Amino acid sequence: MQTLIEGVQPYVTTIATAAVGVLTTFVLAGLNTVKVKVNSWLEARTTAAQREVIHKIAGEGFAFAQTAFKQAGGERKLQEALQYASLTLTSQGITVSQVELRSAIEKAYLEYKAKTKTVLTTEAQPSEEVTQAAAKEAVSSLAAQVTAILSQATGADTVASVAPETQQDTAPAPYANVEGVAVE
Length: 184
Prior knowledge:
Keywords: Membrane, Transmembrane, Transmembrane helix
Organism: Paenibacillus terrae
Number of helices: 5
Region (Disordered): 163-184
Shape: elongated
Protein name: Holin
Number of domains: 1
Transmembrane segments: 12-31
Strand content: under 5%
Structural class: mainly alpha
Distance between the termini: 57 Å
Number of strands: 2
Radius of gyration: 27 Å
Oligomer: single chain
Order of helices and strands: HHHHHEE
């Protein structure tokens, strides 16, 4: 029984890693969708110059709350960021509803989380096509490993190889050394 667990453990680890990768892909796609919706909602209600100022001040409010109230909970930080942004925008003569202001601060928060999550997972954010290809590869690899595990568990003698084939370069090397003699 112990040897069966030891034999299955690498597969379980690989499956868990692939599942985390797929989950991360979905989370990043969801964050991108929310960001697009917030931008379109704000664009419909303000001018471009006002939006730029609102986003800048909302980002400042978020940064202020994040650093000045490190030990506070998320709701308190949000209230402090709202208060800062509201006072600053009012002093500049820009009137914004609390919903619009909260939306801009939430957007700044989501951008911050997306940047920190991306930095933690990879140094460069992959393109959407690369992410989708990686997700498809992870899913197919996961399916192949599950099939292999099931085949081993049922005691099947023949297991279809599902590992991707690697392409080899079959072109001859420009020089080969055979028993000390150089050949072209």
